[in-house]
Structure formats: structure tokens, C-alpha cells
Design brief:
Elements (H helix, E strand, L loop, with lengths): L5 E4 L9 H10 L4 E3 L2 H7 L1 H10 L3 E2 L2 E5 L6 H21 L4 E4 L10 H21 L4 E3 L16 H11 L3 E6 H4 L5 H10 L3 E6 L23 H10 L6 E3 L12 H15 L1
Parallel strand pairs: 1-2, 1-9, 2-3, 4-5, 5-6, 6-7, 7-8, 8-9
């Protein structure tokens, strides 16, 4: 188990509470860290979000999300760069440990996935000086290949780490068990990430069989087929000693349950299934 414990990605309770209510609920349950989403911060207010997080003594394990770099034209790519710079500033304001990047899929009408990956590299290179000035690490989150077309053309931890090497310091990875559990090279790539000191965040949930919705049917830890203890051991053997962050999108299950029940279950399953 992590020596810091559990963080809650606030997407997990996005249907039950606003940001302020969610932070207060986490504190009530003894949870010491959160990861908010930009839309939650925007709805609650940036300064108000920073204040409620600080007032409850929360660590902020990440900020979701930046990225979405590919676009069909130069104007679209520049708009993404500008938006990512704003995300960096927001992440710094709330005290986030990193800005999580879901890098984006293919531009509309394109079949050129290699070209999309170049747009990602170019977009990240463009925002890196701003991130470094703000002292905000950038964490690439590789997504399961089912999202390659529309959400993320970086799909394995190895790809993400290759991109980190290309870009240099202050760039790392957010390793989400939901997205990488299937990768036959996962153990080697987690060890590599540890050697290169690139593990900035670790996200947990479970993969249900069957999965009813590609985006909105993640499972609570222990309800699916991911060997979470094995991945946790890889992560910790690689030197990561930070929070394990629960991130569950569950439109037909956990988003319909009372928020306190969700948090109680997260704590119990973190102890028993992770």
C-alpha cells in the first residue's frame, strides 16, 4: 500500500456533489487528497476552489485535464496550446502536483495517426516553457487503444515514456490501471518509468466484464478483472510512494449511489482489493 494512502479523483462523485461539497466529504471520511476536473473548478470558481482545498488541508494529486492537441488546422492547434496554458495556470492556482494530459485523438476527417502523434509532440513542446515557468509538471496519461481515434493517440506506457524522453525534464506519466492493465510489456515499462523518475500519478479502478459503455462503465476496485495488487507492487517497486487515486466513471452504478457510500466503498476496497 502507498505510504500516503488514497486520493479521490472528483470525477468519482461528480454527480453527487459540487467541488466544495466533494472536498468537504473527502475530509469528513479522512481522505487527504483529491484531483479535480477543470469543469468542476470552473463551476465552483477557481479562487473558491483553491480556498476550499486549502482550508481542508488537501493535497492535490493532479488536475484533469489538459491535452487534446491535434486539430485539422493551425488555428485549432493554437487554440489547444492556448487552452493548455490556461490549464497550467489553473493547476498552479489550486496547488496541483501535476497537470494530467489526455493528448487527443485523430483530427476530424483524418486517418493519419502518426501525424496526430506529431501534433501531440509539437503541442506539448509549445506549452513546456509555460509549464516550467509555473513549476507545473506535465503527466501524459496513455489511454486504452479503444480511445485512439477520438481521445488519445498515445496508448501504451512505452509510447508515453518515449515522448517524455523526446521532450526532456518536467514531463512524466500518469499511470491509470484501467488503461494499461492489458499491456504485455507493462512490468518493464513501469520499471523504466521508475528508473527515469517519470511516474507522477497512479490511478485505480477496475475493468468490468462485460463493459456496458466504453467511457462510463468503470468498476469499483475488486469488481473486475484487473490484478490491482500486482500493478501496485510494480508501481511501488519502481519507487512511487505517492497517493493511489481512485477515478471511476460510472453512469449506471456508482454515480447513482449516495456520495458517502461511494467514498466508504472506495476506502474499504482500497484496503481489501488494491
Amino acid at each position: 500500500m502507498s505510504n500516503k494512502g488514497l486520493s479521490i479523483n472528483l470525477a468519482t462523485v461528480r454527480q453527487q456533489w459540487n467541488l466544495g461539497e466533494a472536498v468537504a466529504a473527502c475530509a469528513r471520511h479522512g481522505i487527504k487528497a483529491v484531483d479535480p476536473w477543470r469543469d468542476q473548478v470552473a463551476a465552483f470558481g477557481l479562487q473558491e476552489s483553491a480556498k476550499v482545498i486549502k482550508d481542508h488541508g488537501m493535497d492535490v494529486t493532479g488536475y484533469c485535464r489538459g491535452g487534446m492537441f491535434p486539430a485539422p488546422d493551425a488555428a485549432g492547434r493554437q487554440a489547444a496550446i492556448d487552452d493548455n496554458r490556461r490549464a497550467i495556470d489553473e493547476a498552479a492556482t489550486i496547488g496541483a502536483e501535476c497537470l494530467v494530459l489526455v493528448v487527443g485523438g485523430l483530427p476530424k476527417g483524418s486517418r493519419d495517426i502518426a501525424g496526430a502523434r506529431e501534433m501531440v509532440a509539437d503541442g506539448m513542446a509549445a506549452i513546456l516553457p509555460h509549464a516550467r515557468a509555473a513549476k507545473m509538471p506535465l503527466a501524459i496519461e496513455p489511454l486504452h487503444p479503444m480511445y485512439a481515434g477520438d481521445r488519445a493517440c498515445v496508448n501504451t506506457l512505452g509510447q508515453a515514456l518515449d515522448l517524455c524522453e523526446r521532450l526532456g525534464p518536467d514531463v512524466g506519466v500518469a499511470i491509470d490501471a484501467y488503461h494499461v492493465w492489458w499491456d504485455p510489456d507493462l512490468a518493464n515499462q513501469i520499471a523504466r518509468a521508475g528508473r527515469e523518475k517519470r511516474i507522477f500519478a497512479y490511478h485505480i479502478c477496475d475493468w468490468l466484464v462485460p463493459t456496458r459503455d466504453m467511457l462510463l462503465d468503470r468498476g469499483m476496485m475488486g469488481d473486475g478483472v484487473i490484478d490491482l495488487p500486482a500493478i501496485a507492487k510494480m508501481i511501488e517497486d519502481a519507487g512511487f510512494a505517492g497517493y493511489h487515486e481512485v477515478e471511476i466513471f460510472s453512469s449506471e452504478d456508482w454515480w447513482k449511489k449516495p456520495g458517502d457510500e461511494v467514498l466508504e466503498t472506495c476506502l474499504k476496497r482500497f484496503a481489501s482489493a488494491c
